[in-house]
């Protein structure tokens, strides 16, 4: 049975889309140097994390960033329409936009992992290709800790681009995040933690996968 033109066109488009995505994923895994270690990072010794960080210039107050003790971080999540500042502080989990996917609650746009180097937090963020993202993205950013509740963005690099220069002109602008304390935090469970390559030790990955299977029951 032959293939009609419509089906053939879909196959061609999918192939053209899949080839670069496969290459981007391979490059992301190759350059991924920060790994989940399966233990507490002791980030609480450096900054407050029982809440979220927000750009002081974000007038809309629709987005935020969070760090978790297990080594994961979410550098962009969205608040639901209509939530007030009091609602965010009283129940952060309910204020954040989330959805269900394969039995898991998902939230957050850019997930990553971090490591601590003295007074600097180094992050590598990953976004995989999907329905709304036509390609993978992988970047490295650094925050200098000014005090326990203030972070200053001092570095950004697109790790999949050959030469992106300094698109945010970090050296010329003041990108500063301030801490907002809240209650009822969402879980750090995310798609990235389900990827074996993001873990330092395979057994830690297996233990995590077993944990989320138990949660689904």
Can you tell me about this structure?
This protein is of the alpha+beta class and 217 residues long. The protein has one domain (5-216). It contains four helices and ten strands. The protein has helices at 5-31, 85-90, 92-95, 202-216, and strands at 51-55, 63-67, 72-78, 98-101, 104-107, 110-117, 120-127, 137-147, 150-158, 176-181. Strands 1-10-9-8-7-6-3-2 form an eight-stranded antiparallel beta sheet, with no helix packed on it. Strands 4-5 form a two-stranded antiparallel ribbon. The longest helix is centred in the first third of the chain and has 27 residues, at 5-31. It is globular, with a radius of gyration of 19 Å. The N and C termini lie far apart (43 Å). Residues 7-19 have low confidence and may be disordered.
Mean of the pLDDT scores? 87
Computed Rg: 19 Å
Instruction: Report the portion of residues in β strands.
Output: 25-35%
**SS class:** alpha+beta
Tally the beta strands.
Answer: 10
Poorly predicted tracts of residues: 7-19
Number of helices: 4
**Helicity range of the residues?**
10-25%
> Quick one: overall form?
globular
Largest sheet geometry? 8 strands, antiparallel
Number of domains: 1
């Amino acid at each position: 049975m032959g293939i009609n033109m419509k089906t053939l066109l879909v196959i061609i488009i999918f192939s053209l889309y899949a080839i670069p995505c496969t290459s981007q994923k391979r490059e992301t895994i190759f350059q991924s140097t920060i790994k989940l270690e399966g233990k507490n990072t002791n980030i609480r010794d450096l900054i407050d994390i029982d809440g979220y960080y927000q750009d002081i210039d974000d007038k809309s107050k629709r987005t935020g960033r969070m760090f978790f003790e297990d080594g994961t971080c979410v550098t962009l999540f969205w608040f639901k329409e209509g939530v007030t500042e009091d609602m965010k502080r009283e129940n952060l989990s309910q204020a954040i936009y989330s959805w269900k996917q394969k039995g898991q609650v998902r939230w957050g746009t850019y997930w990553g992992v971090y490591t601590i180097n003295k007074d600097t937090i180094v992050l590598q963020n990953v976004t995989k290709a999907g329905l709304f993202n036509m390609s993978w993205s992988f970047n490295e950013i650094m925050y200098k800790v000014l005090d326990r509740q203030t972070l200053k963005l001092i570095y950004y690099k697109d790790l999949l681009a050959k030469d992106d220069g300094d698109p945010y002109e970090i050296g010329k602008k003041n990108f500063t995040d301030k801490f907002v304390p809240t209650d009822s935090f969402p879980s750090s469970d995310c798609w990235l933690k389900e990827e074996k390559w993001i873990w330092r030790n395979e057994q830690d990955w297996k233990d995590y996968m077993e944990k989320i299977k138990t949660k689904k029951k």
